[in-house]
Each structure stands twice: as structure tokens, then as C-alpha cells.
Specification:
The protein is of the alpha/beta class. The chain contains 20 helices and 13 strands. It is about 50% helix and about 15% strand. A hairpin with a 5-residue loop joins strand 4 and strand 5. The structure holds nicotinamide-adenine-dinucleotide. The site of nicotinamide-adenine-dinucleotide has 26 residues, from helix 1. Pfam families: Mannitol_dh (PF01232), Mannitol_dh_C (PF08125).
Length: about 450
């Protein structure tokens, strides 16, 4: 069933009916409508069949649902989100989604298909060995690339109007990375005409998105019913904090997002860098440390003074000097991030956040180590993060972690080999994939050894 309410002039098509879109982008567009600006509305679709029950529930509720937000102090608020005016039913060929994307009224197509939905390797090139990518190269629409390629071909033939493609996933340089993947995909399909059309008729601004949105547990619907009287079949829950920074490069117009708190900037890079180093790296630090002392939840570990201090010192002593000057108030950002992590009502797990260390160290942590050395400073606080990860992986090697460790690029044999070697710390410190140029630095190896000793000392206290 397709639900079309008010005929709005401009459509924002979103692909990826997960929780995050409904707690984030849909909320901003709802706020605009609530302020009286009804020029834009959302049409919601999904590539995979896994959101069909949710899409059906939403369609029956005319696209409306309740968003519950909760502050670190436990104050809960409930808001009925009204920006989704069309719920696009899933079908095998995604025919309704393609038709929506080709309409001239559709001027922005955004997507949240998870980090893994871009199939990019360490060098950010398309993983051509992936089965879904291979199927899409033969004309399928199982991935964002096959779907967008088909949709844009259809659009080019039907009306040819330009459109903005807006990646809202947690990926560094997300617009650029998606565009690069899409172009590689089309080159493999030898779609020269479509590549030329995309170059002149689309834009892919980078965005930085932020709001911790766990998967809604059954008690969310119960609280929503209690607070609002509405038996919502599609409620969503997130933290009260929200942020969205977008490069202001829309080719076919955009909603007046600045009216509802979105930061429209020339370059998102400084915001993204602050988020990756202050939020994401501290998050991992807390999850690794918390796991090592037997804790399960992020808020418990953030509330443990010794662990919070590790994250605080890392940001204060090493990250802030690296990122200054910045358009952000980095001190305030650090404090807000630590407060958000301490929110006991979100119940985010150390297991979820501890994942993917082998990608996070080079992406989130090594740049700070390198920059400290470049300005003549010993990165003692930052070195504690890979030291924690080393001890964490030692537990993994000994089958002594309380949960399954998930890491998309884990080389299990190499890790076991490292811990079975005569000097595991030396092997770890010399890993170029983790530490880049520092892998050849004797002072860094020594610092890492001292930091690992500190972690072990802390654990025996
Ligand atoms: P979710 O599990 O609720 O939804 C995931 C969505 O992605 C579903 O619609 C699913 O069908 C789709 N999907 C998964 N793999 C896909 C693939 N390979 N190809 C196409 N579609 C695919 O997750 P969510 O909470 O909505 O989060 C989605 C993404 O949003 C995250 O991966 C992240 O990049 C971004 N994000 C989430 C949060 C958060 O706290 N949840 C915060 C910031 C950013």
C-alpha cells in the first residue's frame, strides 16, 4: 500500500527505513513542517525486504510515528513525526522506488544503508568480489549502487532533472566515497552516457550526522502508549542530542534546514574530524576498557572514573591541540560527548562499540599519534587507546572475552601468531596497517610498551 497525503511541491526521497532516518533526518523535516513550512515532505523506501513489516505499519499510520527522546538525566519527550507523507511499498524490482526517484518533484535522494552497504575496501575501492555487487553489475538492484544507477537512468530518460544524492551514513567523506563507488560501479558496467549525465546533473555533498539511536526495544511502544495513548506499531527512540552538518551543495534546491538547526557549511571535514576523534575514538576507548573490567554497557564504563579519565585525557591533552583552530568549541564538545555516553537510558553495549578495532585504530587514532609527534609532543594519553586494544585482543586470543568480537577485517591467524611470538608488543607496534609511519619508530614502540604496562598495572589494582 502506498500512502500519499498532502500533495507537496518537493519530495525528499529517503532510501533505508531503519531507526536512524526516522530519529534524525525525518525529525528535522518534521520540525520544518511544524513551523509552517510545508514545501517539502519525505517519501520512504527500502532496498532490502527486511523493513516490510515496518513499512506496512507506517503506511497504516499514514507515515506517522512517535519519537521518544531521552536526556542523560532521564527526561523523556514524545513527538509525533509527520514528515513522511509517502510510504513506498517494497517489491522485488523496486519499481515503486524507481518511479518515485524519477519524478521531477523528487529533488533530494538521501540514504542510510549502513557502513557495510557501500562495499568499499581499505583503499575505498569497490569490492567487486562481493556477490551482491556482482549481481548488480549484471543489472540487479540489491545494493545502493545498482538501485541508484537504475533510478537515475530512468530519471534521465523520463525528465532529466538534476537531483542531489545525500549519503547520511557514518562514513568519513561520505558523499565523496559514495560517488567514487558509484562511478567505479558504472565504469565496470561501461555506462558512459549515464556517467556523463551524473557528473552534470547530480551532487553528493558530504554530511556529518549524529544522534545515538538504538534499535527500539518492546518497552518503547509501551512507554509511548502510556505517554500519548497511541498504540504505535512503529515507534523509535533516540538520545535528546542531535546534530547534522551538511555541505551546502544541493543541485536542485533544498529545504530551509538552517531554520531547524542544521549547520550548512562549505566543508564538513573539520566537523567530521572532531566527531571521529572525540566521539568515535573515545567511545572505543571506553568500550575496550569497560570490557576489560567486566562491564557490559557504555554508561557503566563512562561512569567509572578511571575509564572516563582515560578518554578525557586523550581528548584534552592530544586531540584538542591537534584540531585547533576549529569552528567547534572542542572543550564543550568533549564534555557533551562524555555526558551523552553516560546516559543510562540508552543502554548501548560495550560489545557493539568495541567492534572493528583494526579499522578504528588507523582511522580514528593513529592520525592523533602522528600529529603529536610532529609538533614535538609525546602522545602519552593517546597511546593508552591502542594499549587497551592490545590487552583486549590478548584476551580475545586467550578466548577470554565475555562476547564475540566482531571485526570486518580481523586476520585471526595473524593475531594468534602475534601473541604466540617472543615479543607480541614489538610485533603490534611494528604493524604498518595500524600505525602507518610510526610502525618504524623506536620511541613509539617504547611508548606503547609503557602504556601496555600501565593498562596491566591498572587491571591488577
Ligand atoms: P537499522 O538496523 O535500523 O537499519 C538499517 C537499514 O539499512 C535497513 O533499512 C536495512 O534494510 C538497510 N541495509 C542494511 N544493509 C544494507 C545493504 N547492504 N544495502 C542496502 N540496504 C541495507 O540501522 P539504523 O539505526 O537506521 O542505522 C543505519 C545507519 O545510520 C548506520 O549504519 C549509520 O551509518 C547511520 N547512523 C546511525 C546512528 C545510530 O545511532 N543508529 C547514528 C549515526 C549514524
Amino acid at each position: 500500500m502506498s500512502t500519499s497525503l498532502n500533495a507537496s511541491r518537493a519530495v525528499w526521497l529517503h532510501i533505508g527505513a531503519g531507526s536512524f532516518h526516522r530519529a534524525h533526518q525525518a525529525w528535522y523535516l518534521h520540525r520544518l513542517i511544524a513551523k509552517g513550512d510545508t514545501r517539502w515532505s519525505v517519501a520512504l523506501a527500502n532496498i532490502r525486504d527486511d523493513a516490510t513489516p515496518l513499512l506496512d505499519a507506517l503506511a497504516e499510520q499514514n507515515g506517522q510515528y512517535v519519537l521518544e527522546t531521552v536526556t542523560p538525566q532521564g527526561e523523556r519527550q514524545y513527538e509525533t513525526i509527520t514528515s513522511i507523507r509517502k510510504v513506498i511499498p517494497w517489491d522485488n524490482e523496486l519499481a515503486a522506488l524507481m518511479a518515485e526517484g524519477a519524478r521531477p518533484e523528487t529533488r533530494v535522494i538521501s540514504f542510510t544503508v549502513t557502513e557495510g552497504g557501500y562495499y568499499l575496501d581499505n583503499q575505498f575501492n569497490l569490492d567487486q568480489g562481493n556477490g551482491d555487487i556482482q549481481a548488480d553489475l549484471l543489472g540487479g538492484c540489491r545494493t545502493i549502487y545498482g538501485t541508484i544507477a537504475q533510478l537515475l537512468e530512468y530519471r534521465k530518460q523520463l525528465n532529466g532533472d538534476p537531483v542531489t544524492l545525500l549519503n547520511c551514513d557514518n562514513l568519513r567523506h561520505n558523499g565523496e566515497r559514495f560517488r567514487h563507488g558509484l562511478m567505479q560501479f558504472l565504469q565496470l558496467r561501461q555506462e558512459k552516457a549515464l556517467i556523463g549525465w551524473i557528473e552534470s546533473h547530480t551532487r553528493c555533498p558530504n554530511t556529518m550526522v549524529d544522534r545515538i539511536t538504538p534499535r527500539p526495544s518492546p518497552d518503547v511502544a509501551q512507554r509511548v502508549a502510556q505517554a500519548t495513548g497511541f498504540q504505535d506499531r512503529a515507534p523509535v527512540m533516540g538520545e535528546a542530542f542531535i546534530q547534522w552538518v551538511i555541505e551546502d551543495d544541493f543541485i536542485a534546491g533544498r529545504p530551509a534546514l538552517e531554520e531547524v538547526g542544521v549547520e550548512l557549511v562549505e566543508s564538513v571535514l573539520q566537523y567530521e574530524e572532531a566527531k571521529i576523534r572525540i566521539l568515535n575514538a573515545s567511545h572505543s576507548c571506553i568500550a575496550w576498557a569497560g570490557t576489560l573490567i567486566g562491564q557490559s554497557f557504555i554508561h557503566e564504563s563512562t561512569g567509572t572514573p578511571a575509564i572516563c579519565q582515560l578518554a578525557y585525557d586523550y581528548v584534552t591533552q592530544d586531540v584538542i591541540p591537534s584540531l585547533t583552530p576549529s569552528p567547534l568549541d572542542l572543550v564543550a564538545y568533549r564534555d557533551v560527548v562524555l555526558e551523552r555516553f553516560s546516559n543510562p537510558h540508552i543502554r548501548d553495549t560495550n560489545q557493539r562499540v568495541a567492534a572493528d578495532g583494526f579499522s578504528k585504530i588507523p582511522g580514528f587514532i593513529t592520525p592523533t599519534l602522528q600529529e603529536c609527534y610532529q609538533r614535538g609532543q609525546v602522545p602519552a594519553a593517546t597511546a593508552m587507546l591502542p594499549a587497551l586494544f592490545f590487552v583486549f585482543m590478548q584476551r580475545w586470543h586467550q578466548h577470554n572475552l565475555p562476547y564475540d568480537y566482531q571485526d570486518g577485517i580481523l586476520d585471526a591467524a595473524a593475531v594468534h601468531q602475534m601473541f604466540n611470538s617472543a615479543d607480541p608488543v614489538a610485533v603490534f607496534a611494528a604493524d604498518e596497517k595500524l600505525f602507518s609511519t610510526l610502525a618504524h619508530s623506536a620511541p613509539f614502540a617504547q611508548l606503547l610498551r609503557q602504556s601496555i604496562d600501565k593498562v596491566n598495572h591498572w587491571l591488577t589494582q
